[in-house]
Amino acid sequence: MLNRDRIYLSSPHMSGLEQRYISEAFETNWIAPLGRNVDCFEKELAEYVGSKGAVALSSGTAAIHLALLLLDVGKDDIVFCSSLTFVASANPILYQGAIPVFIDSAPDTWNMSPEALENALKDYAAKGLKPKAVIVVNLYGQSADYKRLKDICDEYEVPIIEDAAESLGASCGTQKSGTLGKFGTFSFNGNKIITTSGGGMLVSDDMDLLSKARFYATQAKDPARHYQHSQVGYNYRLSNVLAGIGRAQLQVLDDRISRKREIYNFYCEALSEIEGISFMPDAVYGKSTRWLTAMMLDPDKIKVSAGDIVDYLEQYNIESRPVWKPLHMQPLFKGVEYYKHSDNDVSRELFEGGICLPSDTKMSQEDQMLVIGKIKDRLI
Ligand SMILES: *Cc1c(COP(=O)(O)O)cnc(C)c1O
Fold first, then answer.
1. Dihedral pair phi/psi, residue 58, rounded to 5°
2. N-terminal to C-terminal alpha carbon distance within the chain
């Protein structure tokens, strides 16, 4: 049994087309950050999501960092951020010496709660303060409810950075994920729906700010023959070789989304009948990619914990994970302010009862049936 390959949460899945673009980079000796693959990858991704422009970067974290920089976030500025997310959503707030404030999730979307956001903005306005930006995260392939979040942010005139690292290809109304804020950020890390092994993208309709992003991402070189610098810069550009992988991956993104959604549906059909099990709800306003299938255990009906199931699956060489530990519960952010959805701390409840199941697009139906069988063995 343990001799078979490990079943992963979400691992790189090449299309077979990558080698062509990599070879082109080698043959033309463009083994550099920048080059034709970078230019084309930016253009192709911007076209896919429907943004005016895009800047290819070394990571999704770098994209969030540059978005904050371009919104002039600096020391002691306030930035609101979703609590239920990976730490990379908020680390760049600390890079800038700014102060994070965390916002809870809504139970119907698992994404930022409009109620909690409104309370936080109201509270800050009463103190004569307002955040420089709100980082809204789209969790596990599903867009947040931008119709509501944007109305609230517009009222208080606060720009949105959309952390769409987990939701490339998802939609919100008629728009693609990543295009609903002032900036959108994507990641091509190895676990994401498409990957370049590591990489990221910053998108926006503001071409001036995007050219500033390119400037900061290449060490902030002033226009001069000699190397001259007036500002702090970063080495954040994506390599031309990796951009080649991204171009090929982008061509199979829609196939990957279909497969991810199939995996989600199969889990739902097989497990929803069990009393106390539910799945991350489908938001009514958009279409999720189901990057990861997230399952919820009701502690009143099921005595087995999420952690027990993760450990049990591990014995069979199956990777699963608890839902993100909310940032307001992390030692790194001890003492940071947090706004709950209601009397309930929704993100804490999701963390305590939630599990991300293997959602690897390379996984066979047989593999998935094995995962389902093991979950049932542990529960029933
Ligand atoms: C993966 C991820 C990031 C970071 O992307 P990197 O490319 O690994 O830097 C940021 N935010 C979220 C929500 C993520 O899942």
1. -75, -15
2. 22
15 alpha carbon to ligand 1 midpoint, in Å? 22
Domains of the chain: 18-251 (3.40.640.10), 253-379 (3.90.1150.10)
Distances (CA, A) of 193 to 6, 28, 187: 18, 29, 9
Residue pLDDT, tens place only, 88-119: 999 999 999 999 999 999 999 999 999 999 99
Within 6 A (CB) of ligand 1 lie 59-61, 85-86, 88-89, 137, 163, 165-166, 187, 189, 200
Phi, psi dihedral angles at 210 (to 5 degrees): -65, -35
pLDDT confidence band for 2 (50 / 70 / 90):
low
C-alpha distances in angstroms, 329 versus 236, 248, 299, 324? 30, 39, 20, 10
